[in-house]
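Pilot study result, target chain (154 residues):
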Amino acid sequence: MNIHYLTAEDLPLMDGLLTMFGEAFDDLATYTAHCPDAAYLQRLLSDDTFIALAAVKNGTVIGGLVAYELRKFEQARSELYIYDLAVAAAHRRAGVATALIRALQAIAAARGITVIFVQADTTPDDEAALALYSKLGTREDVVHFDLGVEAEAQ
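Predicted structure:
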């Protein structure tokens, strides 16, 4: 297995990453039904605040991680937010997710970033993710809110 940091030239790997996420999360529609065009994906993969890592084995994407660099305003520093992390079912419990996180940690260190954070659900389906993140980091229980874009009428 190799970990690839995707660039604008890696559109086939990005397609594989999207499909793997859709299958791993049992949500193919979200990840493959309305994929952005090549120009959009090339711009995204060229943006230094977007990080896409693909774990590839025998030419197939078996795991992946997508993170965003969040530039802070209170100090001249950044944090990394892991937005998605998944491993194909047939390759779980083999160190793929840990390898992806270790690769992200190396990228963070090279950029002078000292904090990587991730959210995880507390449902039984996410016990493996919680165990992984607990092994690699410090747990902080928070409350998450999704705010709609449209303001409610008063």
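One observation from the pilot: The CA atoms of residues 4 and 54 lie 5 Å apart. A full batch analysis is planned for the follow-on phase.
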